[in-house]
Each structure stands twice: as structure tokens, then as C-alpha cells.
Amino acid sequence: MQKIGIIGAGAFGTAMATVAARAGRTVTIWSYEAEVVEEINSRHTNNTYLCEVPLEPNIRATRDLADVCDNDAVLIAVPTVFLRSVVTLAAQHWHTGIPALICSKGVEQGTCKLMAEVVGDCLGEGAVIATMSGPTFAAEIARDLPAATLVACPDTAVGERLAKALASPHFRTYVSDDIIGAQLGGATKNVLAIACGIVTGKGLGDNARAALITRGLAEINALGMVLGAKSHTLMGLSGLGDLTLTCNAMQSRNFSVGYRLGQGETLEHILEGRKTVAEGVHNADTVAELSRRNQVDMPICLAVEAVLTVDADLDAIIHGLLSRPLVNE
């Protein structure tokens, strides 16, 4: 896996390009936006999505999906709302046996499918699919600060090759065959991060945020057990690790959205003019719907859905959560 392609030149896709280049790989990154391609190729920066981070000169950008698919492995790092449409276009250029490593985190609108299922639909039977998830802020890994993540693939030999291809002294890659568990943590933590941001924005204290994180993890675990995830995966990097990071830092786009909601701003005003995507905003209703379809009680995620989709009163929602019956942990 010497040649790595990356579909999506947003913050995380660009950061992963730096990771792959740092690991000694030849990197081609695809962007829909011509100006992003031009900037990466001519100035070795992507200030549209990842400001003030110099890129390795051996990272080459393209607008040609056939070009980016002509590699030994392809990372997919587009927003979840565009995943199906982009991968459908890429499928006609996909080479048999080339692994797709999904970096996008979420649940598809309408179908409630996890990202690996969506990519499987697009690439067809026999596609080699893996996912990557963990506590990894794009700006930090791009600056070569220490981080660790999980590569999950049902074929552990492929997972190990992918992990080795991206590993470096400051970017540790672990391997699992639990692709469901690896996806669930990443899909749900963005919704829970909005809840933690709201609590912080309203000044409800660190105790409240810690309680939300803990009970949020219980919600992820409950859904995971129904869908066939392994509990230890959800307690690892892609579950507890990613949840802890996203729910405690203003650097998290989802946390910052929640914080501003807690401060009294409207969602419309917060999202106005934002170039980057806060996935939790797009996934709150799909995660909630996934819980309803599987009859799993997820009160925090349902509360966030109510705030974002029907503009429910924050104080009433918080009171409702605090008034729930006391149960055994």
C-alpha cells in the first residue's frame, strides 16, 4: 500500500493526507472544488479547510475521481450527507480488491445505514471495506501531534496492512474486526457532543458534563449490543476515546455548536456562513431514528434531536432529563 488516494479534501481528509505522506506514502487527494485543488498543488496549503498547516509537497490534488481511485488503497473522507453520491460516482473507476477506508462518521438520512453499509451499496458485492475512527482532531494530527486511532475491517489482514500504511511515530494505529462498533462510537459521539456543549454554554458545570458523557456512553453501548458491536470496542478509541475528546473541547465543531445554543443563539445563526460541517447537526435525527427502529432508549440523543429539529425549549428539555425516573446503573 504505497500509493494512497483520499476522496475529500476537507479538514480531516487533508489531515490524513499529511499522515499518509509522513508515513512515506505517495498521496493523491480529490476535491470537488477547483480552487482547493489549485491551492494544494501550487502553494501546498488548504486554508479553506485547514488553516496555517503546511502540506507535504508530495501530496497531489486532483478533481478526477478516476485518478484518485487508481491507488493501492482509498480513504473516503467526505461529509456523510454527500457520501452515497460521491462514492456512486467513484464506483465506476474502482479497481477490484482495492480497500475503501471510510473516515466519515455518521448514519445515512432515510435509510439509517452506517457508512460501511452505504459504501457497500455503492461499490457492490465483494468490496473490501474498512473504517477508521478515534479521538483525532484534524488540526492536531496535521501538525504531527501524538494521536491514536482504530482501523476496523472484517478482514483483519487487510486492516493490518491499512494500519501499517498510515502508522508513524506520532500516529498510532490499532486494528479490530468490529466494524459495527467502530462506526457506532463515531456516529453517536457528535450528537452527544452537542448536548455537552449546551450544558457548558448554559453554565451547568463540569459535573453535569461528566454525567452526560457517562450516560451517553451507556446509550452508545445499549445500541451497540443490539446491532452486534463488541462492548470492548465501544470502551476503546473509537467509542470512549472519541466521545471524551469531542465532548470536552471547543475545538470540536459539534461541541461549539452546542455551546452557542446554550448561550442562546439560534441554530440558523450558528450555521450561517460555516464552511466546515458539524456532523452532529445532520445526524441527530438519524441517530434518534436508529434508536427508535431498534427500540433502544437513548434519552440524551432524543433530547438533542428535539432541540435541533423542532426547536424545543432548552430549559424544558434539561428539566425533562433531570426528572427521569431513577434506575440502577
Can you tell me about this structure?
The chain has 329 residues and is α/β, with parallel strands linked by helices. The protein has 2 domains: 3-177, Rossmann fold, CATH 3.40.50; 187-322, N-(1-d-carboxylethyl)-l-norvaline Dehydrogenase, domain 2 (Orthogonal Bundle), CATH 1.10.1040.10. The chain has 16 helices and 8 strands. It has helices at residues 11-22, 34-43, 65-69, 80-91, 115-123, 138-142, 156-166, 179-201, 206-227, 231-234, 237-246, 253-262, 267-271, 279-293, 299-309, 314-322, and strands at residues 3-7, 26-30, 59-62, 73-76, 100-102, 129-133, 147-152, 171-176. It has an 8-stranded mixed sheet with strand order 3-2-1-4-5-6-7-8, with helices on both faces. Strand 5, helix 5 (115-123) and strand 6 form a beta-alpha-beta unit. Helix 8 (179-201) runs parallel beside helix 12 (253-262), helix 8 packs across helix 15 (299-309) and helix 14 crosses helix 15. It is globular. The termini are far apart.
